[in-house]
Write a structure and sequence with these properties.
InterPro entries: P-loop_NTPase. The protein is of the alpha/beta class. It has one domain: P-loop containing nucleotide triphosphate hydrolases (Rossmann fold).
Length: 179
């Protein structure tokens, strides 16, 4: 499950976990997520990244670690694993997922959640040029994930409704999956 910054991915992961589902907020795994230069080298993000720095670096998932997370869940007999997050290389990894879901919010909500959400799990949107860069990439992100076949879910609703809609969408996706 993915979405733009501020869409509620980590909040959904917490709620699904509280409801007894196996859900992982991927940003919380330091071995999985990191900033990388365009050549793939891991780097440390500056405290106040400017637009030039953000244009030449990406937030990425380590493929080996992602596979470890999925394999561990399979080994534990988990039937449904909710992987909740966003990374620049996530679109290249969709073959690892049975279905993809896109939490959708409008840009005004994105801006609001990113700037006033002191309880957010990260500071992206509140430091340097990160808010401007995130807002500038909004449309491309949504279009890309729709093209990849992600099922849209209205994430501007109450969190319980968002989670219920995700569970229903997942059930339909499972029913329509080729055998």
């Amino acid at each position: 499950m993915t979405g733009v910054s501020g869409a509620g991915k980590s909040t959904v992961a917490c709620r699904l976990s509280a409801w007894g589902h196996r859900a992982v907020s991927l940003d919380g795994d330091g071995r999985l997520c990191s900033w990388a230069a365009l050549d793939g080298r891991r780097v440390v993000r500056p405290a106040e990244p400017d637009a030039a720095w953000l244009a030449s670096h990406r937030w990425v998932w380590d493929v080996t670690r992602l596979d470890e997370i999925i394999a561990a869940a399979c080994g534990d007999g988990v039937e449904t694993l909710w992987l909740c997050g966003q990374a620049a290389n996530a679109g290249e990894l969709v073959d690892r997922f049975d279905a993809c879901f896109l939490l959708e919010i409008d840009q005004a909500t994105m801006r609001h959640r990113m700037t006033v959400g002191a309880g957010r799990g990260n500071d992206f949107g509140r430091v340097g040029a990160s808010l401007d860069v995130a807002l500038a990439g909004y449309r491309e992100f949504i279009v890309t994930w729709r093209r990849l076949g992600a099922v849209p879910v209205d994430a501007m609703q109450d969190i319980d409704q968002v989670c219920e809609d995700l569970l229903v969408a997942a059930a339909f996706a499972a029913l329509n999956r080729p055998s």
